[in-house]
Design a protein that fits this description.
2 copies of one chain form a homodimer.
Chain A: H1 14-17, E1 28-34, E2 40-46, H2 48-57, E3 61-64, E4 69-72, E5 81-88, E6 94-101, H3 113-117, E7 119-120, H4 129-133
Parallel strand pairs in A: 1-6
Antiparallel strand pairs in A: 1-2, 3-4, 5-6
Catalytic activity (chains A, B): 1-(5-phospho-beta-D-ribosyl)-5'-AMP + H2O = 1-(5-phospho-beta-D-ribosyl)-5-[(5-phospho-beta-D-ribosylamino)methylideneamino]imidazole-4-carboxamide
GO molecular function (chains A, B): phosphoribosyl-AMP cyclohydrolase activity
EC number (chains A, B): 3.5.4.19
């Protein structure tokens, strides 16, 4: 292993751990996105060890706040999440985990937890003419 | 207004409010996704009033945990988020907000906060042959 490689074999590499901004319970939010369709499937939470397992095993592991235990997605349901990439956000309190989701991400059997909850009524916003003509994306 | 319409004019409609599962600070996580490219841009937090404003004004409003104030995205930066849709998840503790993001979502000037933080080293996972051949998505 070269000096530049991270070592997550027994604990989360300190260079990653020091970048995390955890909530009072030691958790960061993890947004789970299907890697090819880019559908947002669910949001879970990870502590340092859940993140370490997610980075090193090819499978997503959360910390279950309700059950207070590690939860490797799919172990009971078969609805495995295979890890494709993990990115940390600018201030270290959120993760974006791109996965290949087998079957349903939601415990209700829906593909996405947001399909289960469903849309709320919104007033849709639109760019101004100036913004449309600008060079911004 | 018919009986079926939600009324968010002065406060968040009780039928929506009762579905929210807030953290101890009264907040739910809001995943912000560009509506057409489906890029995940950032994660923010909303209380009931921030959600009400987001649903009714065409613009995304967060509750800033660091500044303890409402934060209508783009008011100082110009990097406005126009609301296209808002969905609640199955257990009411996360929102998916599809937006049209003008310019950069990240305060650093990057399009996405996850581009700014960047990728972590991962072991990539793969479906089993059985899962590849199955009828699951």
């Amino acid at each position: 292993m070269t000096d530049n490689e991270y070592d997550n074999t027994t604990e989360l590499d300190p260079r990653i751990a020091q970048r995390l901004k955890r909530d009072p319970k030691g958790l960061v939010a993890a947004v789970i996105q299907q890697y090819d369709t880019r559908e947002v499937l669910m949001v879970g939470y990870m502590n340092d060890e859940a993140l370490r397992r997610t980075l090193t095993t090819g499978r997503v592991t959360f910390w279950s706040r309700s059950r207070q235990e590690y939860w490797r997605k799919g172990d009971t349901s078969g609805h495995v999440q295979y890890v494709k990439s993990v990115s940390l956000d600018c201030d270290g309190d959120a993760l974006l985990v791109e996965v290949d989701q087998v079957g349903a991400a939601c415990h209700t059997g829906r593909r996405s937890c947001f399909l289960e909850g469903g849309p709320l009524p919104v007033v849709v916003g639109h760019r101004t003419q100036e913004q449309k003509e600008g060079t911004d994306e």
